[in-house]
Write a structure and sequence with these properties.
The chain is an alpha+beta fold and about 350 residues long. The protein contains eleven helices and 18 strands. Bound molecules: succinic acid. The site of succinic acid has 11 residues, from strand 13, strand 17 and strand 18.
Length: about 350
């Protein structure tokens, strides 16, 4: 997710922290690729903070308790970062599984856009196609090229799913392009819900076809956003980005600055493998705080912290560190094994925004 080269941004405090936690493999081993060991002692761990708090009512220096009467569990703030809230294990295991299923089946469905739109147009039923080992094949008979570029019919007709005995990335014939659904699923990086985002212009394009945020997700986000809202105000979810991470993926330091009103929070849900989240300051030169994000944790970013750089330098997909045992147990039914197979080596983040 980065350009190469030792540019100025490569030497900032934020970039240095990313390099500390990023997944590197040991180069001098003949065995299977081994991740290089990383010192995690400086990573803030809200799981142990909750345990400490439940045992003796104490929180470590720099961490405070938010006023959150709506919650039956502690909500934490960081004294150095007004507007930041951490709600450990806000989602039950059943809720986590529900949002994992939705993130893989309904959220990438048109009119929601994904990173695959730019190349393949609208793709329907990607997850089911991967389960059925289908292949996306270029449609030779389509009108692609004869219709105007913005004709959605053209992109919808440009490719079709076909059953394949041998799913592969390679072309079956030199003139017909094809790619397996499982490869496309592995390369799924984002999908957008509600108001659609134009990444090239870095702005919302309200003219793009869209569905509203699903009611259940909207209700959940409103409930979770409450600690960060002014008295009497309710969060209005209008857009969401779903990020999909595989082993070795990272999300570089960035600001979420496209919404009109930064006093409103971004509600950010973690699902699947554990990750490290870096929260920096208003400059990339400010040293970031590293913290673990586990499946079921929710983070709110509102007000001043909306101006702070943040990112994900690492997800842990190994058994010892991923911490997804409860998901594994919950997704052990035959019909859920396809979700388990995905989430075993992946992380999903759903971040929900009020745009106006
Ligand atoms: C983001 O910063 O946009 C996503 C953070 C996350 O994946 O938890």
């Amino acid at each position: 997710m980065y350009g190469g080269g030792d540019t100025e941004s490569e030497r900032t405090a934020f970039r240095k922290a990313e390099k500390i936690y990023k997944l590197y493999y040991q180069s001098n081993t003949k065995k299977k690729k081994q991740p290089r060991a990383v010192d995690l002692t400086q990573v803030l761990d809200f799981k142990s903070i909750v345990q400490l708090f439940n045992a003796n009512g104490q929180v470590p220096p720099g961490v405070s308790l938010a006023a959150a009467p709506q919650f039956d569990r502690p909500v934490f703030c960081l004294e150095k970062h007004p507007g930041f809230y951490f709600i450990p294990q806000a989602l039950s295991v059943a809720e986590q599984c529900h949002w994992i299923r939705e993130s893989l089946t309904s959220f990438p469905q048109p009119p929601n856009r994904t990173n695959h739109n730019a190349v393949y147009g609208s793709i329907h039923d990607l997850f089911i196609a991967a389960k059925e080992r289908k292949v996306l094949v270029e449609n030779q008979n389509c009108l692609k090229g004869l219709l105007p570029d913005n004709n959605s019919l053209a992109t919808d007709l440009a490719y079709r799913w076909e059953l394949s005995e041998e799913p592969s990335v390679t072309s079956r014939e030199s003139t017909i392009k094809s790619i397996s659904a499982s490869t496309l699923l592995r390369k799924l990086r984002w999908s957008t819900l509600g108001l659609q985002f134009d990444w090239s212009k870095r702005s919302y394009n309200v003219d793009l076809p869209h569905n509203k945020i699903p009611d259940l997700l909207s209700e959940l986000a409103k409930k979770m956003a409450a600690p960060s809202m002014s008295l009497g105000e309710e969060f209005q979810p209008e857009a969401a980005i779903v990020n999909y991470f595989g082993a070795g993926d990272m999300l570089g330091g960035h600001l979420d600055d496209m919404e009109a009103d930064w006093s409103k929070p971004i509600v950010s849900m973690s699902l699947g493998c554990k990750a490290i989240f870096l929260l920096g300051g208003k400059s990339r030169e400010d040293e970031p705080i590293a913290m673990f994000l586990r499946s079921g944790d929710i983070v709110l970013m509102a007000g001043e912290v909306r101006e702070c750089f943040h990112g994900i330098p690492r997800i842990f997909t190994d058994k010892e560190n991923a911490e997804i045992t409860s998901l594994e147990q919950h997704l052990s039914n035959e019909e859920d094994l396809c979700y388990l197979e995905y989430i075993n080596r992946s992380r999903i983040n759903i971040n929900i925004r009020q745009v106006f």
